[in-house]
Amino acid sequence: DRSRTFQVFLVLYVIFLAPLLYALFNELTDLPTEGPAIIPMSPSSMGLFGWMVTCLILYASLRVALSYFGWKQNKKTPSQHKEDLLRIARLSTSVGVIGRLANRVVMGDGFMFLAMIFYFTWFFTIIFEVSKSLNITLTADCFFNPFTMFVTSITVTVIAGVLGLHCLFASQDSDLFEYLGFLGLCALFHLALLFGPGNAHVHVHHWYWAWAMTHICVFDSKTSQIAQAMFCGAYIHGVALFGVEKCFYKNAEEDADDGIATS
User: Fold this and answer.
1) In sequence order, what are the residues at sequence separation of 6 or more whose Cβ sits closer than 8 angstroms to the Cβ of residue 189?
2) Quick check: pTM over 0.90?
3) Could you tell me if 48 and 227 are in contact, meaning their C-beta atoms sit under 8 angstroms apart?
4) What is the pLDDT along the chain (263 residues), one digit of tens a residue?
5) Which of 42, 49, 80, 239 has its CA 20 to 30 A from that of 150?
């Protein structure tokens, strides 16, 4: 029964979002005169090491646990594991440096932040398994799937709230122009790819949009911290279990073929 499955999924999703919504509400209703500063970009080598080790532990433990339970994941050859780990190293370095995650790890509550990444990764894994029959995917067909549209609308609303609060933080520290410039360049680049010349089937896998969103959570605030840990959880889940999948395909059939090898 898909409606019952969706009800269970919705309850889990609300619980998943609850810490972020709580932090967002508190910081919006009690906004200080001087907002939290942007975390410095120059990365801590110890923080980057801790972040990379976290990625490796979650990569291995997710695959072992889901193999045991028979949950959904792509089969990988040894060469695919190595290629994905190489790509994850590059992607996670970007998060560690541009997303300031490496420096967040060595802040006062850095250990708790890493614990949150573990929590959100495993929680997202459970939600993903529950929702697999609902076919919630960001493709051109998503507009015909009410489950996808409902979940996407909630997710976009929450992300808009996080972005709005971050813009308030940036304006308080006179960093609004630079912050909006960074967001604008990223948005223009992706729009150019989506609407530029050349036909392609687009499938925005959850690893990609989550990885991209980690880069906006650069403030020393509870909302920014929780949001970044949450996005990291979805990103790690995607790359560990399904690989660093591409977003542009020749057609829908090629996309479907890539998703056949699951166990």
Assistant:
1) none
2) no
3) no
4) 778 888 888 899 999 999 999 999 999 888 777 778 889 888 899 999 999 999 999 999 999 999 999 998 999 999 999 999 999 999 999 999 999 999 999 998 999 999 999 999 999 999 999 887 766 666 666 666 677 788 888 888 999 999 999 888 888 877 777 888 888 888 899 888 888 888 888 888 889 999 999 999 999 999 999 999 999 999 999 999 999 888 888 887 776 656 543 33
5) 239
